[in-house]
Amino acid sequence: MAWNGAQWAARAPQASGLPTALVGRRAEREAIGGLLDAVRDGLSGALVLTGEPGIGKTRLLEYAADRAAEVRVVRLTPVEQETGLGFGALHRLLRPFLDRAALLPAPQRAALDAALGLASGLPADRYLVGLATLTLLSEVAADQPLLFLVDDAQWLDRESAEALAFTARRLHADSLGLIFAVRDGAGDKGLFDALSTRRVAGLAESEARTLLTSGTRRVDPAVADRIVVGTGGNPLALLELADALTAEQLSGVAPLPDPLPVGRLLEDHFQGLVRALPTATGTLLLLLAAAPSDDTGLMWRAAGRLGLSARAVEPAVAAGILGRGLPTAFRHPLIRSTVYAGAGAGERRRVHAALAAACDAVRDADRRAWHRAEAAEGVDDQVADDLEAASERARSRGGYSQQALFLSRAVDFTGAPDRRAERLLDAAQAHLMSGDAAAARTALDLAGADLRGPVLRIRELRIRATAQMFRIVVADVPAMLMDAVARLGPQDPGLTWELLREALHAALVAHDRVQGTSLAEVGAAVAAARPAPDTAAYGRDLLVEGLARRVAEGYEHGAPVLRTALGLLRDGHGTGRGTGDGNSPFAVMLSMACDDLWDVRAERELTDRLAAADRDAGALYALSITLLVAARCDLWDGRFTEAEVRYAEFDDIAADTGFPGGGDINRLHLFALTGREAELRAAARRTEQMTGMGHGVLHLLARHALTLFELGQGSYRQAARHAQAVFEADPPACGNLVLPLLVEAGVRTGDRAAAAAALVRLEERAPLAGTPWALGALALGRALTADGDDAEKSYRESVELLGQVPLALEQARSRLLFGEWLRRRKRRSDARTQLRAAYESFDAFGAVPYAERARTELLATGETARVRTEETRFVLTPRERQVAAMAAAGLTNVEIATRLFVTTSTVEFHMNKVFRKLGITSRRQIPRAIGEPGSDPGASRRRT
Description:
Distance between the termini: 94 Å
Strand order of the largest sheet: 2-3-4-1-5
Organism: Streptomyces fuscichromogenes
Keywords: ATP-binding, Nucleotide-binding
Radius of gyration: 33 Å
Number of strands: 5
CATH architecture of the largest domain: Alpha Horseshoe
Largest sheet: 5 strands, parallel
CATH class of the largest domain: Mainly Alpha
Strand content: under 5%
Pfam family, one: GerE
Protein name: Helix-turn-helix transcriptional regulator
InterPro entries: AAA_16 (IPR041664), P-loop_NTPase (IPR027417), Sig_transdc_resp-reg_C-effctor (IPR016032), Tscrpt_reg_LuxR_C (IPR000792), WH-like_DNA-bd_sf (IPR036388)
Number of domains: 5
Helix content: 55-70%
CATH superfamily of the largest domain: Tetratricopeptide repeat domain
Structural class: mainly alpha
């Protein structure tokens, strides 16, 4: 019997849906069972199922629902045609629980209300929306364990996907499970990459045969083998092909089609089924495919406008396209997309026009604008204006990807070139706000031909520069922004200052890798554009000016300005809305200014303030950068475990935000001080690779870290080589911090010229800074190059000065050098005092190279160093240590959860583990158990 395509198209399936019993899938069933067991036990979990269409992902979600005894199951199936409606899927998911939103902390409640359009206000921060989602769902799960099943998750709007991915990554002890089914090749936006993922493949041959021969179907073994191989074990393809073949073909009497139509098998099959239905039924199916699945009222209103009756569903139910229990639901998600894709353009426009007419002009304004656009052809300014209005509403809710989508669609109906360009630039900016730099660059490229006049060109340059910074490719960013400044001229001083500030930020990061201009040129331009002293952000602006003068005019011109700026910021004057900026984290330049003045007090104080403001605002990207600065402060004070906690939190946030700057390159100094040589050198090599992207200062920071490591090892020549490179580049980030290290390396290698040059710079700059760290570093430099009483006096001065500020590590280094000097002068008793204090400090910190160096020196004095004992705090994980430290500072579980962007139940889970590991029974015992004096882990403290 010959194969007949029409015959294939006309046949209805003999069975509707998959069999009740799940065939095979042992590994998937075990993963689902493990997740459900965890949820019932009070824990949480997330699972992503990926695979080709028809492979069985939906069936596995059904299996999970069937096995979810004692668990409340909530299902969501997004619609491809509504991926542009920001927070739409999240609203549908949370709608049953919004009566509990009043229990959320105020910032979270405001963010969620704004995102869902329940209240007006500032645009919602998408990470606060994610935290609100997490908190709300965990509150609901406290009453009964929850399982969320999201089918076709690739069609989630980006904002909803971000909120759910954030929630899934932050789950721990919340009786909450999420399972996402994602179709291959449809693009899941990469948001679920960090979650546990299981690829669903075709069934094994024996399992596929079992499925194929299920029910009353009689299949010849040879025919079965060919079908199994031809479909790759795809369950839906197996069943639909078997239903479409004749009894003669299945029994082997008639030949099978050659080749088997598997490539577009399912789409062709379903389209054929639809074409065989009455015209009215086909139109109704298209309407169902284009309408939101949970708004049957809208669908039937549109159906009425098209003259369709409810009876039109009956042939589709009989054909197995729609389900019998819910006749407006497609039997399989693939059928919905196939119906929509297979319809003619004119028919789709007619259906969208009916949906637009059926939408409420106020309540459903965004959906109405979208359907009107789908129904329109050619230039239509009214449609474009409606889409732009919808984009503004999206922006007001914080739905930036939705804003970009509406604007991009508006461009299709815009006739005037300048308006097209403006809308594309707005779309590019919105893409950046949503974290999609690639889409932003595409929008900018499309706008290129229509950009006319300096204003649009300036906007384009600025957005391109921001996109480059997001990709951490910074070499040409300063030149791009300087070009924008030149185009702008004198007409807008405020905008000029913003552009220059961003250019300086990028130039400081790129340092000697700047292309198209130079750090000095950018600094000179910034210094010449000094802002008025009565501006709201004068303290911050003055710090920017100070850095500019430092790199353009010299340290003696920059340091006084920086001192004044830090004083203003510490006093809380002239900071406007605060010292944080979510788009361009202020912590970067703040860290450079503080390090350049050796001002660890200001750095610690202002960093704590920044971190608190960032946490309150849910500004995760800005917070992540602030955490890196705070970690450096921890290292200088010997608080290595606290630093590791901050690095771990940075990594968590980087995963949440998609920021590409994470990884071990941030731990360079921790690796150096703890003696983890292999990790240090691997991270340093990565910084070399990143210099091509313009990260000159990062490479110099790596050289500074290598200097510290080599000095700890006693490898003075290697230390001198690294330190000399930093000395010559003289970056604000570590150019001054390296000076006493270069003096030490120069003295130890006999390179008196290098030591003298470093000391001269110390003599010039330390008094201008005037901080205890600066003067202590100067005293140490003098001690290393002096003899006799002068050297001893300077060593003692250094130890005393460094003890005045939270610099326990630096003070221990000074004691080590003092003790070595005393031992070389045969003053063993005095040497033991300094070396013992240095060794015990290094040993407690975990500064292995320096502890070994101090131990060796101590042994040379005739004293045996104590054996290091393991402290209980080191059995805690970074997150447990973080929770314990906050509890030691007096924070409640609710306050800890808010600061860490987790749930209260997760904090309680970690606290229970802290109590068990430390062998304590009361929160009052925590400070002593972890070696904390009961103060906030972010607060500075004096160590002597």
